[in-house]
Write a structure and sequence with these properties.
- It is built from no helices and eleven strands.
- The strands form two sheets. Strands 2, 4, 5, 6, 9, 10 and 11 form a seven-stranded mixed beta sheet that branches.
- It is 0% helix and 51% strand.
- A hairpin with a 6-residue loop joins strand 4 (33-39) and strand 5.
- It has strands spanning 3-7, 10-12, 18-25, 33-39, 46-52, 57-60, 68-73, 78-83, 92-99, 108-109, 113-117.
- It has 119 residues and is mostly beta strands.
Length: 119
């Protein structure tokens, strides 16, 4: 049984930072693509970032390039999303996902963690 559990969300002021973690139980990280989706109020769900394979190929949405960094630690079975220079428009529920490719449908989803950027 595979399970994704996110943590690290919270309330932060504009310009601040947060690091989200996704503990991936039952999955070998190098065999999968791991993505972070964002669901903002009134907006479509957006793939914010994705990391795939042993080479840790990464991709980012234009809205977060230069501010967010995705990474993984195989020994800890954990995928991270470091979010810097946060803006109010980064507010939303962030969900960790796992699948075969970053541009295909994901097979596994976490429950999500709330990120609120507000002064």
């Amino acid at each position: 049984q595979s399970l994704l559990v996110e943590s690290g969300g919270g309330l932060v002021q504009p310009g601040g930072s947060l690091r989200l973690s996704c503990l991936a139980s039952g999955l070998t990280l190098d065999y999968y693509a791991f993505g972070w989706f964002r669901q903002a109020p009134g907006k479509d769900r957006e793939l914010v970032s994705c990391i795939r394979g042993r080479a840790s190929n990464t991709q980012y949405a234009d809205s977060v390039k230069g501010r967010f960094t995705i990474s993984k630690d195989n020994a800890k079975h954990t995928v991270y999303l470091q979010m810097n220079s946060l803006k109010p428009e980064d507010t939303g529920i962030y969900s960790c996902t796992a699948g075969v490719y970053c541009d295909r449908e994901f097979d596994y989803w976490g429950q999500g963690t709330q990120v609120t950027v507000s002064s």
